[in-house]
Amino acid sequence: MNKIMCRVNMGNLLMIFLVVLCGRCTAVSTSLNYTKMYSRQVSSLRLDRIHRHLDKINKPPLFTIQSPDGDIIDCVHKRKQPAMDHPLLKNHKIRRVPPALPRSTKKGQGTNGSTTSVDGWKGVWQTWHQNGQLCPKGTVPVRRSTVHDVLRAKSLFYFGKKQFPNGLPFSPTRRTGGRPNSDSDSDSDPPDLLSGNNGHEHAIAYTTASDEVYGAKATINVWDPSVDELSEFSLSQIWVLSGSFDGSDLNSIEAGWQVSPELYGDTRPRLFTYWTSDAYQATGCYNLLCSGFVQTNSRIAIGAAISPVSSVGGNQYDITLLIWKDPRLGDWWLGFGDNTLVGYWPNELFTHLADRATMVEWGGEIVNSRANDEHTSTQMGSGNFAEDGFGKASYFRNLEIVDSDNSLTSVRDIKTLSENANCYNIQNSYNEQWGTHFYYGGPGKNPQCP
């Protein structure tokens, strides 16, 4: 059984023992592939700092829901949510009138008989919905953070943030070690999100046109990939980007699903968001773990587990995500499914994205910590390579971007890249039913990926 055990002895020092054991947890859909013991001395002063931080992000709830997976969902008054603490949003008024959704220029986006959307309200799609309770109108669901969540992070500063062990996630030099796969004649490079020296590996598709971009959309099937180490993760997401890719002013808005034992304490796939306005240095965070993202939906809990998930040779369950800029007020909104609004990132948070995006990426990302000087066995997507195709490999389908007229158009001019294709790869295609789409992923460590 996977356990996280905490023992506290009061005194000058509080001994916190975090024990992670291999095996299968009865409350977790997949088993952890690591065995480690973390023993940490935590001073009472540090523990006080942690509690003060948790008091800032865990707002007093009007109603609380206990999820079957162990999560606690607090129903917080929408005007008391964490976003309202941001210094740039002191005078911000939550949008009462929803923005106009981007117009689709394509009639009918099909699925095949073996795919099922898990983002509708006809069935359970987040685990905390299983007991039939929802947050009341006028509140937003916020996943409660705990001391254990913070202690799993490298430090309080890094709690809820993407971490890059060798500094900035981008190299100022041109990438030379990647293995691009291109269906475009463009010789432009993607932003250097893929530097091999920071432990992050990707399999992505990205836009190559220099036209102005005001949003992106895709449908992604959900899996529960195994994660090898507590400090590693596996995610599938959309990036909406602008700014300098070799400096400290990159703006990024991100949404997708991820498995992160360090962030969530388990291996369930979870809906997540992320934002930064300074290349992941000090601004932004995952989900609602800092002030910034303004949630407006009372049914969707960002950071909560998604259920059911896809299986090899079985049903394929997918979610549809849309990130786009409100042409009237300039905020960046998150849409889920066909027409469900989750919330928005206020325009005030950004510098370059205050105007528009210059690039979009879709795909998978993992962290490779190279424990024992070997490539990680953390899986990307389903854990199968792209060439295994439907029912085995993970996919993104119906890739679209939002133009200056607030219209959705199918993406045709893309390039693909996987910097370590023997570990994780990507193959793109186009048809009338799925539009521009791709399969991606891989098992990580294997005879060709030592």
Number of helices, counting only DSSP H or I runs of 4 residues or more? 3
Distance between the termini: 29 Å
Q: Roughly what fraction of the amino acids lie in strands?
A: 25-35%
Low-confidence stretches: 1-39, 167-188
Mean pLDDT: 84
How many strand elements? 23
Measured as a percent range, the helix fraction is under 10%
Give the SSE order as H and E letters.
EEHEEEEEHEEEEEHEEEEEEEEEEE
Decide which structural class fits the backbone: mainly beta
Question: Major sheet, described briefly?
Answer: 11 strands, mixed
Radius of gyration: 21 Å
What gross morphology would you assign?
A: globular
Structure description:
The longest helix has 14 residues, at 44-57. It is built from three helices and 23 strands. The protein is mainly beta. 5% of the residues lie in helices and 32% in strands. Strands 5, 6, 10, 14, 15, 16, 17, 19, 20, 22 and 23 form an eleven-stranded mixed sheet that branches. Strands 8-21-9-18-11-12-13 form a seven-stranded antiparallel sheet, with no helix packed on it.
Q: Quick recap of the structure?
A:
By secondary structure, the chain is mainly beta. The chain contains three helices and 23 strands.
Topology readout:
Blueprint: E1 13-20, E2 36-43, H1 44-57, E3 63-66, E4 72-77, E5 103-104, E6 115-117, E7 139-143, H2 147-152, E8 179-182, E9 200-207, E10 215-221, E11 234-242, E12 251-259, H3 261-264, E13 270-276, E14 294-295, E15 316-325, E16 332-336, E17 340-345, E18 359-367, E19 394-402, E20 407-410, E21 414-418, E22 425-431, E23 435-441
Parallel strand pairs: 5-20, 6-15
Antiparallel strand pairs: 1-2, 3-4, 4-7, 8-21, 9-18, 9-21, 10-15, 10-19, 11-12, 11-18, 12-13, 14-17, 15-16, 16-17, 19-20, 19-23, 22-23
